[in-house]
Amino acid sequence: MYAYIIGDVKSILQGEVIVENNGIGYRIFTTASTIAELNTYETFKLYTEYIVREDGVYLYGFATEEELDLFKLLIKVSSVGPKVAIGLLSTLNANDIKYSIHNNDIDLLTKAPGIGKKTAGRIILELKDKIGQDFELPTENEGTNSLDDDDTFALEALINLGYMKNDVEKVLRKLDPELRLEDKIKLAMKNLESKR
């Protein structure tokens, strides 16, 4: 029904955003990676999928068409609903999901909430022939390896406080490497909170 929505980001919440377009506020459910790209009161384009279920009508939005396409494939897998698909796309990026499917990496997929070995196996079985091979080696450890000792400590501390690993890594890479550890953590928290 909606291919995409361009509007002003009015509110960023846990797992959802409110985007205003022509006086209408759309509640759009989305991934942690998309939320990391958004800033309140900025205009943004979200690629959307409109889903009607017995318990309501839902709009899901993504920063990239690749993420949207993968979401649409995932929800076609038996026992994988929108919530589980969002959780997977929030835990792993599209590249790593494609890699794990092509390489039968069940352990990588089960890092996402709601995905056990049985569901991971079903995702691999049902999607292996449906996704492209435009992926690289997994990137999940690159961020930690490229961070210095202070950044790694800050990363672990912020993850323990409930922030998403990918979001924290993005923020830490933007900070001045000469900052003291405590200042890095404070600034990172401020930045992360502004995106919620």
Name the descriptors.
single chain, 196 residues, alpha+beta, five-stranded antiparallel β-sheet, 5 strands
What can you see in these coordinates?
The chain is an alpha+beta fold and 196 residues long. Helices cover 46% and strands 20% of the residues. It has ten helices and five strands; from the N terminus they run βββαββααααααααα. A five-stranded antiparallel sheet has the order 3-2-1-4-5, covered by helices on one side. Helix 8 packs across helix 10 and helix 9 crosses helix 10. The longest helix has 14 residues.
Task: List how many beta strands DSSP finds.
Answer: 5
Low-pLDDT segments = 139-145
The proportion of residues in beta strands is 15-25%
Helix content: 40-55%
**What's the overall average pLDDT, rounded?**
86
Q: List the helices and strands in order.
A: EEEHEEHHHHHHHHH
Structural class: alpha+beta
Strand order of the largest sheet: 3-2-1-4-5
Shape: globular
Largest sheet, in brief, is: 5 strands, antiparallel
Count of runs of 4 or more consecutive helical residues: 10
Question: In a nutshell, what does this entry contain?
Answer:
By secondary structure, the protein is of the alpha+beta class. 46% of the residues lie in helices and 20% in strands.
Give the secondary structure arrangement, pairings included.
Elements: E1 4-13, E2 16-21, E3 24-29, H1 32-37, E4 43-53, E5 56-62, H2 65-74, H3 82-91, H4 94-102, H5 106-109, H6 117-127, H7 142-146, H8 149-160, H9 165-174, H10 181-194
Antiparallel strand pairs: 1-2, 1-4, 2-3, 4-5
Helix pairs in contact: 8-9, 8-10, 9-10
